């Protein structure tokens, strides 16, 4: 089988999974969520990833979320990537087949998280199994070593994969190590798609040649991220630096408070019309003092948080 082609570049938003107060899925909001992102100019969506808390959901729930986003993105014409890893191998295979049957645009996969791969060969063998479950769907590997403790060098990994997995097309690179990221980008004559997953290094990564990003901040600050990329594309690196600093200050003001997904979901409810509810990760609540601090910090940065919100 020949290698699958994959041409998507640019921004992908790692969507939050909406939950009701009782912890059940709130699927009804997803259509509105997709429309909000599309109207902001965001053309790609990742579901069931870290921000989507895929690893906190059952297989059945993950399938429901993917199915609902498929319906939504058919209307909005957005690229849909589904994260299928972070569970037992039979379930990963099941989720890969399910995503393929839904004809999603791409799938993203974490490594085995208990019997962790320690070499490129072991990681390739794992992804080969996943790739065979969905041979017609572009497959990307999810490199997030601060969460997985899988520290395989991505440049070396991409140089060694060759054509062993015909559906393999690239990686999501969530790391501060831009030297490694640059090696990954340049592996095999830039053969693979590299999506940076770091909100604070966008301008620096762009200067190295990266032009694709999966960023949690897009949920809340889509205009700011788009302005930053436009400045980078125009070669106005001083403007890009200023916008990057503005974005980083806002992200840090939100994410310095413990449960980062919870804080980002809360900030989205404060600054947009999309409320995705509480996180499933503990603690499941944020103190009044923390909310007050986030509101104060965002206000001081020039934003206008809505004090009234439904879940916090």
Description:
By secondary structure, this protein is of the alpha/beta class. It contains twelve helices and eight strands. The chain has helices spanning 30-39, 59-76, 89-101, 120-133, 145-148, 154-161, 178-186, 202-207, 222-233, 237-255, 260-271, 288-300; strands at 11-14, 44-47, 79-83, 106-109, 139-143, 168-173, 193-196, 213-214. It has an eight-stranded parallel β-sheet, with helices on one face. Strand 1, helix 1 and strand 2 form a beta-alpha-beta unit. Helix 1 packs across helix 2 and helix 3 (89-101) packs across helix 4. The radius of gyration is 19 Å and the shape is globular. The mean pLDDT is 95.
Please summarize what this structure is:
With 312 residues, this protein is an alpha/beta fold. The chain has 12 helices and 8 strands.
> Whole-number average pLDDT?
95
Determine the structural class based on helices, strands and strand pairing.
Answer: alpha/beta
Number of helices: 12
**How would a textbook summarize the main sheet?**
8 strands, parallel
Q: What helical percentage do the residues reach?
A: 40-55%
Query: Mind telling me the C-alpha Rg?
Result: 19 Å
What are the secondary-structure elements, in order, as H or E? EHEHEHEHEHHEHEHEHHHH
Lateral strand order in the biggest sheet: 7-6-5-4-3-2-1-8
Instruction: Detail the poorly predicted runs.
Output: none
Distance between the termini: 51 Å
Q: What oligomeric state do the depicted chains represent?
A: single chain
Principal-axes geometry comes out as globular
The portion of residues forming beta strands comes to 5-15%
- Give me the count of strands: 8
């Amino acid at each position: 089988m020949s290698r699958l082609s994959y041409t998507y570049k640019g921004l992908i938003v790692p969507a939050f999974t909406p939950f009701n107060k009782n912890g059940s899925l709130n699927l009804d909001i997803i259509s509105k969520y997709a429309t909000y992102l599309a109207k902001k100019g965001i053309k790609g969506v990742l579901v069931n990833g870290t921000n989507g808390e895929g690893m906190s959901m059952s297989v059945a729930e993950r399938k429901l979320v993917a199915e609902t986003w498929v319906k939504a993105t058919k209307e909005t014409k957005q690229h849909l990537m589904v994260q299928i890893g972070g569970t037992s191998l039979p379930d990963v295979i099941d989720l890969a087949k399910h995503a393929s049957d839904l004809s999603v645009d791409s799938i993203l996969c974490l490594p085995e998280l208990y019997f962790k791969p320690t070499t490129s060969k072991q990681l390739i063998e794992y992804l080969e199994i996943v790739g065979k479950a969905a041979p017609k769907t572009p497959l990307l590997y999810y490199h997030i070593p601060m969460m997985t403790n899988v520290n395989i060098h991505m440049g070396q990994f991409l140089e060694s994969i060759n054509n062993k997995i015909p559906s393999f097309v690239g990686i999501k690179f969530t790391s501060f190590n831009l030297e490694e990221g640059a090696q990954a980008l340049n592996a095999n004559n830039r053969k693979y798609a590299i999506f940076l997953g770091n909100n604070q290094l966008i301008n620096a990564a762009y200067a190295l040649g990266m032009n694709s990003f999966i960023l949690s901040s897009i949920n809340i600050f889509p205009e700011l991220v788009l302005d930053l990329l436009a400045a980078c594309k125009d070669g106005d690196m001083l403007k890009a630096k200023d916008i990057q600093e503005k974005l980083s200050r806002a992200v840090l003001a939100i994410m310095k408070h413990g449960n980062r997904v919870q804080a980002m979901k809360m900030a989205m409810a404060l600054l947009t019309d999309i409320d995705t509810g509480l996180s499933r990760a503990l603690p499941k609540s944020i103190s009044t003092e923390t909310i007050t601090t986030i509101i104060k910090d965002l206000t001081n940065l020039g934003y206008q948080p809505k004090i009234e919100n439904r879940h916090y």
